[in-house]
Amino acid sequence: MDARFNLYDNEIAAKFGKRFAGASLVIDQSPLPKATRELVSLRASQINGCGFCVDMHTKEAAAAGETLVRLHLVAAWREATVFTEAERAALALAEEGTRLADTHHGVSDETWAQVRKHYDDDQIAALVCLVALINAANRANVIVRNPAGSYVPGMLASMKS
Question: Carboxymuconolactone decarboxylase-like domain spans which residues (predicted)?
């Protein structure tokens, strides 16, 4: 499978990608734990059907030491016992923030209360920005049908410098 359009070979898309990567660097440098960042990115990507991002965030999480059990259970996190309460709050926020059209309330008060309970203001800011950013990345990759399977951990790190 080939992508419909190569976002890395187009000047406008490449400029946008560089700025997009810069925004992700702000989140990377935040106090939000890396494991939480990868789990949230993986879950949103699963919901949005973005194979490229599922591939990327699964591999990045594994390279950072995440266990296969937890990675395999992200899609069924509600029924799994391997996630902390804080991670469960972040995963709920990721789901509700990704599925905005499914409810007129957006993120529920219950989910927001759980997020407030487990994260400080800087972590919440990073979490909210991460959900927005991963959803945008998912959409771009799904639109151009960026294929999954060839991602190598760290492959896009040079875009962040």
Answer: 26-96
